[in-house]
Amino acid sequence: MKEQLENIYNSAKSDIEKAESINDIDAIRLRYLSRKGEFNSIKKGLKDLSDEDKRTIGALANKITQDLELLLKEKYDIFYQKELNEKLQHDRIDITLSGKYVSQGKVHPLTQTTKEIVSIFQNLGFSVVSSELSPEVETEYYNFDMLNVPKDHPARDVQDTFYVKDMPNVILRSQTSGAQIHVMETQKPPIKVISPGRVYRNENINARKNNFFHQIEGLYVDKDITFGDLKGVMNEFIRLYFGSARPTRFRSSFFPFTEPSAEIDVQCIMCQGKGCKICSGTGWLEILGAGMVDVNVLKGVGIDPDVYSGFAFGMGVERLAMLKYAIDDIRLFFNNDKRFLEQF
Ligand code: PHE
Predict the structure, then answer these.
(1) Are 120 and 165 within 8 A, CB to CB?
(2) Which pLDDT value is given to residue 185?
(3) How far apart are CA 156 and CA 174, in angstroms?
(4) By the 8 A CB rule, do 181 and 152 touch?
(5) Helix H segments across 188-266?
(6) Ligand 1 in contact with 65 (CB < 6 A)?
(7) How many other CB atoms are there within 10 angstroms of residue 283's CB atom?
(8) Is the dihedral of CA 127, 130, 136, 137 positive or negative?
(9) Nearest to 213 by CA among 197, 235, 227, 229
């Protein structure tokens, strides 16, 4: 029996020496030391031995078991360390690597410009018209008729205005001025509002013109509003938008819905009036149309022109952004080229 034990010990020992992994170690432990393992089946024979032999063989069996446990543990620890090191090596994070670049979205320059202009007018006491009173899909009634535009006016031509197919009199608005009518139909003076939004014109697209663009409409109707008020508000707007007071020029003009009408020029910000490419050599930049609300328009919405008067103005957002940032092509706003958009 002693011999048997020693044989098992030797074979277990050589198995342990040959083991190559934790799995091998587990298999050896199972084979020799588990309840159904080889040692246990021999230990079962102990009960048939003499008391004397029981003691010596029993002690030997215990010693051999302990030795094997020790050998298994030593080997196990080696493999465990090795596997752990491999794992750490493999999963290691290099904290010196630079992070991945996450590009950050920005507010579109036209939105920025609109917000800036809107806030200037809010500070001057204007409020923004709700969007229901300023629809992009409009009727001729609001875009033209109520604004005193004659039936045969060239702006109504399909060459200039987009008509909605199969819907007579429905158009994509060509100006934000229709908002004036919506507001005056629903509100009584004093009215002091602005209305930013998109407008559409059937244009050939080039560096200066796109077939849609953005306008900001303004309307101020109250008792005793004069052309002097219009000038004051416009000059203040120009000072705040361009950052300093600039020479302005009110050029006499014509719009069917204002009388008198004016187009307002500012001195060219590029050449300070000397004449350059941006201002086509004139030294002046046209920035908006304006005028005193026509008596016919007031009458049309039931406002008594003997009691009330008002002024209106309309400006192109693209144009104002182009002048301020010296952008020479309107199409840049709509190409979605990040290299352009990132600069704002
Ligand atoms: N609606 C005019 C345009 O698009 C601008 C304007 C608005 C002029 C208000 C006078 C008053 O050109």
Answers:
(1) no
(2) 97
(3) 9
(4) no
(5) 227-242
(6) no
(7) 18
(8) negative
(9) 197
Mean pLDDT of 79-97: 88
Tokens of 59: 């002690």
Name the one residue in this structure whose structure tokens are 């705040």: 240
| 1 CA from centroid of ligand 1 (Å) | 115
What is the distance of C-alpha 82 from the center of its chain? 50
Element (H, E) at 53: helix 51-91
**Which atom of ligand 1 has the smallest separation from the CA of 219?**
9
**In ligand 1, which atom is closest to the CA atom of 316?**
4
Distance between CA 15 and CA 18 in Å, rounded?
5
Task: State the residue for tokens 């809010």.
Answer: 122
Q: CA 286 to CA 288: how far, in whole Å? A: 6
Q: Which tens digits make up the pLDDT trace of 137-163?
A: 999 999 999 999 999 999 888 889 999
Instruction: Find the Cα–Cα–Cα–Cα dihedral 135, 137, 139, 142, rounded to 10°.
Output: 30
What mean pLDDT do residues 182-203 have? 97
Distance CA 47, CA 339 (A): 91
Is residue 270 over pLDDT 80?
no
- Check residue 173 and give its pLDDT: 97
